[in-house]
Amino acid sequence: MKDIDKPTIFEKLSPSNIQLYRKIVQYLFLVTVVLIGIKFTMFVSQLENGIRPTVARPPGIEAFLPISSLISLKYWLVSGVFNQVHPSGLIILLMVLATAVLLKRGFCSWVCPFGLLTEYLNRLHRFIFRKNVKLPAWLDYPLRSLKYLLLAFFLWAIILQMNAVALEYFIYSPYNMVADIKMLHFFSNISNFSLWVLIIILVLSILIRNFWCRFLCPYGALLGALSFFSILKIHRSDDTCTRCQKCTRTCPVDIKVHKTLSVISDECHACLKCVAVCPEEDTLYISASKRKAILKPWVYATAICLLFIGGSLAGRLTGYWQTGISNSEYLFHVQNLAMPFYQHNRGEVPAYNKEAWLRMMKKIREGQGAMRQAHGDAKPLNTKN
Ligand code: SF4
Ligand code: SF4
Q1: What are the pLDDT digits (tens) for 250-267?
Q2: In which element (H, E) is residue 137 found?
Q3: Which of 253, 278, 295, 300 to mutate to test the pocket of ligand 2 (most atoms within 8 A of CB)?
């Protein structure tokens, strides 16, 4: 039996204290996201002041453009072209999808900052109600299907409704080129309506545990569906299990771990909390097959970090990390952002002449190159085209 009472400082820091390491990984990703946000805000602020940016645009900002990335993914699959408008968005999407297939829904509980926020809101929920309030099954199941309906809508609109021409038209549209700046403006100039929606989601997330992740997040739905293909599962050995139910009580998504031999659920976030609390040695574990190749939790933590570090390195090395949009183009975009062709109507981009638009962008880019050569400025451009 594992001694899990009163851990010493060495036990706390031991590689087997998986929850400590999960927290460290979560906070590292949170700090990365915050730094990306700050850097991008500075980049846009310099553009808005008419200054040629001295702060480089952080490619990681494209992680917040999942729809654009999904469109890029389909375009890549049907045309073989890995577009240079938001290449890191597509790389990040591929990394996240790979996590789901290889490591279950670990993205939600190890990487996603909203997952971390949800954990703190769950604590607040327990503090207020003094227990975990569970929704009745008749309400929980229909609500859980909402995120799949949202996902189905996006997949229908992108996979079924958009052919290669429509995909390309969206990707190179003025709207998509500034989608990241638009997203920043959405939060910095948030409308009363959007603010109220966010407040309502926040309040509901306190009243109902995992409200956003469990009921509404279409990204989570996609990862949950893909996680069924993951060879890794949480397994329980019936021989050594004492049915103490600690695993079930600690599971944040209410999976009855003590009643199953293998957790097969789209809701399992691979947080490994159940594994951490199980007092019996090798009774609850994550592995590709029962009893064989039990994956030590620290190996799982290392794998998820390496997947993201490796993916971004691969993007950098292959030249698919930095956007092909030059700073001069960004200056042009920001100065003209109020023009109608930068807007969108319920997801549809306004009509524009793609060839003429791309010719104009090329001229601006080449003009920047000529100016830089004339001034003997050795600083490389962040454009690929
Ligand atoms: S798997 Fe572990 S924590 Fe869960 S019921 Fe069995 S002994 Fe208890
Ligand atoms: S089953 Fe275990 S790993 Fe999955 S969500 Fe529940 S506690 Fe986390």
Answers
A1: 999 999 999 999 999 999
A2: helix 137-155
A3: 253
